[in-house]
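The instructor's notes for this session suggest beginning with a concrete chain rather than abstract definitions. Hand out the sequence below and ask the class to guess, before any prediction is shown, which regions might be ordered.
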Amino acid sequence: MLKELSTLQFGEFTLNRGLRELRRDGALLPVSGKAFDLLAFMAENPGRPLSKSELMDAVWPETAVEEANLSQNVFLLRKVLGSGADSPIKTLPGRGYQFAAQVSEAYQAAEAPEPPAGAQGIISIEATQTRMIVESEVEERVLWRLPRVSRRVALSALVPVLAAAGWYGWSRWQRWLDKSGGEPVQVVLTALEGTTGDPLLDRSLVDALRIDLSQSPFVSVVPSAVVHSTLTQMKHKPDDALTSSIAQEVCERTNSQAVLRGAIARVGSHFLLTEEAASCADGSTLASAKREAATADDLPGSIDKLAASLRQKLGESRRSIARFDAPLFAANTSSLEALKAYSESLRLAEQGKLPAAIDMLQHAVSADPQFAIAYSDLAAYYASSTVDPEKERAAIEKAYSLRDTASPLERMSIVAHYNRIIVGDLFESERNYQTWTELYPRKIGAWNGLTVAQGELGENSVAAATRALALRPNYLGLYVNLAMSQMRVGDAQGARATCERAIAQGIDGDHLRARYLNVAYLLHDTALVQAQRDWVAAHPEAPITILNLASIAVAEGRFADARRLAAQGAEVMRRQGIVSGADSAIRSAGTGLIEAGDVEHGAPMLRSSPPDREEGADLVGLAELGDTAAASSGVQAMEAEHPQATLWKLFWGPMIHAAIAMKSGKPEQAVALLVPTHLLDGRGLDLPMLRGKAYLAAGQPALAEKEFRFILAHQGLDPVSYHYPLAWLALGRALAAQGNRPGASDAYQHFFALWAHADPDAMYLKQARQEFGRLGSAPPPAQH
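After discussion, reveal the predicted structure:
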């Protein structure tokens, strides 16, 4: 008889729903279980957005599962189908997924012959594998007693059975590999009972176990910082030991499922490691594992094996463990000294002692030059503790060269950071971080990296920043990132609440106060602004907030105050050892003064140190200053050096070229360069301001008006920018050029109000007075 078999075709792939097969150009691909069900459902619904809840209902009907299961299967499918731009599975941030490939459906007739006479008992696909083998053997004995012609007929009937047997066995094996013991679990990790005789080694082994377990998308460990903050809430000291009763309460307060308690016993040079997972609900044992080590040097390898055993016993599938498991050290470079130094760096970083943590990491990579995770952390610490991008870049480049020796989790982190910092491909970096969050939804680094990448692209990063902060609610930098994200989308009150929530919990500092100052200025709350000024007076070693006060002074036309504050902030940075950061701050302030009209004082500040070509703002300043040769050679060098860098292709490059064109009297050329850059307008006010000025100079005031109104409607993109008040002045000029005298008059008056305390000889202030007078209106009174 004939049976209709339906196949779906997309690109070079063919998906056979009846046989549950996926092939690429005829070659069978390893997709089974829920991953196959997910692919089939998505391919049956191409083009339309598919929410996560819809996909989970389709693939796991009437079963409660976490999103991590969906994310893991999407990750597995992308490994087979292709990732990044090549993948037909597209992520729709905040919405779900979309199957973007064009899908066609085909039917083919597959002949299923009746069993020949004497060939009874040929079984269905639903039969067990054991029975299938037995009956196949019986069938073989019968076949060879048949006449030759009948033998060929019987063989043709046996082929589908053998194929079905093979498929059935293969699919059972795949299901066995994918089998998990339930929902993902979160655990609280306690210190080891007993000792190796070396307290630092004892702590290092716990850290090694934490790192090993962190590779798992199924088992997650509550971060040490969260444990410390929970202990504080419980009225304990953050570094109090986690006794059984305390660990149990921490487990409950963090909504975890188990407490991991370990012990180490030493007999001579021989060690026995044990770990037990106890349920937070009733204290019952959920899993236990033990491993032996002949010497201390064997302990890291024993920890690796102990972690893998625990993951399996807690319910993680064998396939997941195989895919997401890598030893902390390569077998031929295992270094106990490196492990101890790395562990100590974690402890120092948690205490905020980043310079000391950097020293320990340098010791770790000296002991083990193949220690990828140490180089990755070194890059992060350089980024957090100093304004020294060269050291950060060197560390992440080294980590990237060693990425294949790292765990899957750490590899995701390294690749995402590399694409953002070295390659500069922000779109690819965003996709890397998105994949990371989908596979490891409890990893703070993934959500924080996504926040940064989205912010640099000018996208809405509030959701990612909120998720990161929820995972680590006692970290100052995450409050800063969330407040900045909220301001960018115009939620000034939300940003204020974020800053005040941090301060109320005793989480305070220079970076947070700098953002709080921006919020206060955005809200036009003079009392709140003054409160931040008072905080700076009480904390004079806060350079970031001081430099923000300098930016406000530029924005208000108070250039003498701006120069004084910029010098003060830079001097503080130099005392703190951040020399390159101090030089950059002075150059940045000089560029601001130049663009705000104070070329006389801004030019020497910009030229006070060699420009950093990696910092596009320096080249913009040179172009605005009229040094078009230096600006042009600089941008060309950067474009050649970073051909894939998003910002050099869509932000800095076009902006610098356009600034050069404007200085060369070619506004039409500047317009052509800037029109394609709208994609990154959410980064700040620079692009729309330059584009508006180019339109105005090119005799297109109506288009210029739209750009200036965009700036005025989005002050939150850069609350203390000089572009905001100057946009009112530019809007007045655009409206006057269109003959809209009342509108122009109103715009000029807004500018005068914002520059009410400007230096009386400020160039733009004097120009505005003259232009306002030509409108037929009386100029405002002179400032004092």
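Then share the key points. The longest strand covers residues 258-267. The radius of gyration is 32 Å.
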